[in-house]
Amino acid sequence: MDKKIQHADIYALAHHHRFQWEEAQQNYVILFPEGMVKLHGSAGEVLKRLDGKATVGDVVADLKATFPDASNIEADIIGMFELAVIKGWLRKVN
């Protein structure tokens, strides 16, 4: 599988994974049969924008608009996608 993230790619949460706000953790988490991953705040911001229709470019544009003062935000977002794909948290829809 090609791990190179492209702006036209569309991702969704991997099968058998659930993304949610965990009140007890005061953080976003990914739940899956083997356990749970507590996400850093910015990772939650990326993943909560994934609906199986938004492209990587859409997510980048939305986050740039939401956090205009964040430096190097695009590289951080792409890095999050790369990590999530490698870890198996995301699946490519197209």
Your description of this structure?
There is one protein chain. With 94 residues, this protein is α+β, with helices and mostly antiparallel strands. The protein has 3 helices and 5 strands; from the N terminus they run E-E-E-E-H-H-H-E. It has helices spanning 41-47, 56-66, 73-87, and strands spanning 11-13, 18-22, 27-32, 35-38, 90-92.
Give me some keywords for this one:
3 helices, single chain, alpha+beta, two-stranded antiparallel sheet, three-stranded antiparallel sheet
Point out poorly predicted stretches.
none
Tell me the distance between the termini: 13 Å
What does the radius of gyration come to? 13 Å
Mean pLDDT rating:
93
Could you spell the SSE succession in H and E letters? Answer: EEEEHHHE
In total, how many beta strands? Answer: 5
How would you characterize the largest beta sheet?
Answer: 3 strands, antiparallel
Number of helices: 3
Give the strand content: 15-25%
Structural class label: alpha+beta
Percent in helix: 25-40%
Q: So what's the overall shape?
A: globular
* Neighbour order of strands in the largest sheet: 2-3-4
Brief write-up:
The chain is of the alpha+beta class and 94 residues long.
